[in-house]
Automatic annotation (TrEMBL), chain A:
InterPro entries: BPD_transp_1_N, MetI-like, MetI-like_sf. GO terms for cellular component: plasma membrane. The chain crosses the membrane at residues 12-30, 101-122, 134-155, 175-194, 233-255, 275-301. Belongs to the binding-protein-dependent transport system permease family. It is found in: Cell membrane. Residues 95-298 form the ABC transmembrane type-1 domain. GO terms for biological process: transmembrane transport. Keywords: Cell membrane, Membrane, Transmembrane, Transmembrane helix, Transport. This is Oligopeptide transport system permease protein. It is a multi-pass membrane protein. PROSITE patterns: ABC_TM1 (PS50928).
UniProtKB/TrEMBL annotation, chain B:
One of its GO terms (biological process) is peptide transport. Residues 85-462 form the Solute-binding protein family domain. It comes from Microbacterium endophyticum. This is Oligopeptide transport system substrate-binding protein. GO terms for cellular component: ATP-binding cassette (ABC) transporter complex; periplasmic space. Residues 29-62 are annotated as: Disordered. Residues 29-42 have a biased composition (Low complexity). InterPro entries: Peptide/Ni-bd (IPR030678), SBP_5 (IPR039424), SBP_5_dom (IPR000914). The keyword Kinase does not apply. Residues 43-62 have a biased composition (Polar residues). GO terms for molecular function: peptide transmembrane transporter activity. Residues 1-25 form the signal peptide. Pfam families: SBP_bac_5. Keywords: Signal.
Amino acid sequence: MLGYILRRVLQLIPVFFGSTLLIYFLVFAMPGDPILALFGDKTPNAALLASLQDQYHLNDPFIVQYFYYITGIFRGDLGDTFSGQSVNDVLARTLPVTGRLAVMAIGIEFVLAIIIGTVSALRKGKIFDNTALVVSLLFVAMPIFVLAFLAQYFLAIQWGWFSPTVGAQNDWGDLWLPAIVLGLSLYATSMRLMRGSVIDTLNQDWVRTAYSKGMSRRQVIPTHVLRNSLIPVITNSATNFGVLLVGATVTEGIFNVPGVGNTLFQATLRHEGPTIVSFVTVFVIIYVLVNLVIDLLYGLLDPRIRYVK
Amino acid sequence: MSEKAWRKRVLGSLAVAAAGSLALAGCSSSGSSDSGDSSSSSIIRTNGSEPQNPLIPTNTNETGGGKILDSIFAGLVYYDADGDPVNDVADSITVDDAQHLTVKIKEGQYFTNGEEVTADNFINAWNYGALASNEQLSSYFFEDIEGFSYEEDSELTGLEQVDDYTFTIALNKPAADFALRLGYSAFYPLPDAAFDDMDAFGENPIGNGPYMLDGDDAWQHDVEIDLVTNPDYTGGRTPQNGGLDIIFYATQEAAYADLLGGNVDVIDGIPTSSLATYESDLGERAVNQPAAIFQSFTIPETLAHFSGEEGQLRRAALSMAINREEITDTVFEGTRTPAKDFTSPVIAGWSDSLEGADVLDYNPDEAVKLWAEADAISPWDGTFQIAYNSDGGHQTWVDATANSIKNTLGIDASGAPYVDFASLRTEVTQRTITTAFRTGWQADYPGLYNFLGPLYATGAGSNDGDYSNAEFDALLAEGISSEDVEVQNENFQAAQEILLQDLPAIPLWYSNVNGGYSEAVDNVQFGWNSVPLYYAITKSE
């Protein structure tokens, strides 16, 4: 078990270098000089322009710029934004916000998926099942920004249940609206998986055995059915996590959430190499770690799955 | 608690008291007295964006940081709602001749850390901003002062202290409108404390303006900055409210949603998606007025078929082929004003009846005729293209303009999109661009010269089309050398009449400032630079 975890963590090293190199290259390949954009429609004096470009190593070849970046990382320095803030600070400020948002969204997703999926399975073909299918198709088909704008317009502006944007108040309780939007945009696939999985499990021998021993539905469903049905849903949530990061970027913009997605978007507009690379790298590392945790969760849910060797 | 923090708290409660007494004059305010909450009803909440640079006056050249600096600093002059300069820190500014000024400042004015504002605070701040190695984005504001150099570190020898409250400015070339420029943020004074650690200062600036930062953590990066009134400020911009919360929005959509939801009081931008409806949403609380922003597309002199007599004919034909009225109405929902010249209607000296301005009117018959005359000199081939950056919402109007040209002249015309602003500007700056391209100019100060000198004078810094006309240069030089504003503007108007013949850039329209405010606030006026005059806003609630 420990060896397995260690091997998976060591895999992070090539993932780290591979992703930073690739992203740095992509940023480097973006056309245009970001320093020129700082001056708007005004053309800066050549001497000033050159000295600013030097400051950010923009005239150096790609591999030299990358070298500056990587050596910085080993000193614990992720570089600076064009406004002179350290990327470390920016990350430390924005990650917790997005973290809260993600946890809430996943929570909403799971609760909805498990409850609606299970009830649908138990009432297969009935009106609840059919309604849930139509509603979930609607959420899958609707782009997240449409969902977000609708929620903002009706729930916040028209009915006043929430504040239209988040801004400075970004504690747990203030993030409900974007979290609901994110959760709704994710729950549909999980719900369908949960439904299918519960139907499969209900047909398993051990479920029939349990019933034949005289156990009630109330005893069988939570212990024997749900626990075994969760595995595909959890597997799906690993891939969903990537969708979540993309969705967070969109919802953070619409609800003005000061998180990583919002900052990454702004940094991309400004061609701010260090910010983009650091943020995306952190995304990649989190993604890999989340997948590791989820793989380990299988073992807890189903003791037959073990990571020996 | 440190002494500084303590002092801030005291000042903060003073601000609360001041705000409370103001609120009494209006209508009853909620009664609690000892906490910051009691003043929150008179705090104006407005939109902004995270400053792109630390808050150092000479290193801030964008509106996000600019509106904060304008609130927390007082310069020699400020601009009133009409764009006229009014003395702020200055007692008097005397223009001795087109190259020499004498500035007297009022005694007894203080920075919020207790330092008195003296002549040296201006001289040192300007020297800092001008010094080449300090790499300040707004250093070009000092290029007219004697001693300035872009190439090497050199002192501004043209600044001389006479006594504690008087200094003189000597310019290296005539710039009779220099006094008018002094309201721009690059010319703000800095306290001595700033020079100890400029980086730290940029994070937590100490000013002398109507507002000041509400404590050490007033600036929450990417989120908002909170300002409270500065009780020591004695200039003409005394706040009629308790403070400003400037909330940073990533998108205009979010700010507009907050205005509709009652979460913000004043915004100075309306998202494109709501331009068609915002006037009916907000009624008389909608703002739509011309701003000091001129938009055009530039045709480089080097473009084939666009120089000499043929070029003049083609430029005029293109200009007359564009139906500006229709495009501003349909594409922009009336939030642009068709151009009548090369400046802006909010600037003193603007005229809509310059000789030759009819070249800016839609006149398809004349356009076809001129184009044919040009074809007689050298036949046209290929496509006429206007380059633009796709990240700025320009596609619709570029397409509409190209269509207007195409339909009128019967030639191929289209937009040439660049992925973003940086890549377009890179090609423009390096002169590798092979098409016409969109250009815009937002004035630094409310003077006609600012729209002409930097853009069309031979060899000027932002002369992206490499236009050169000796007659035009001479008129500009004559205008800028005269101390008489009338004479200045006459020359600048005559210079524009030359531009209307040569059309180095095709004027399109002036941007309007589009904004709105909530029912909670009154006395909302927008300044010449499209930013609300925050100090004048009152809030009852």
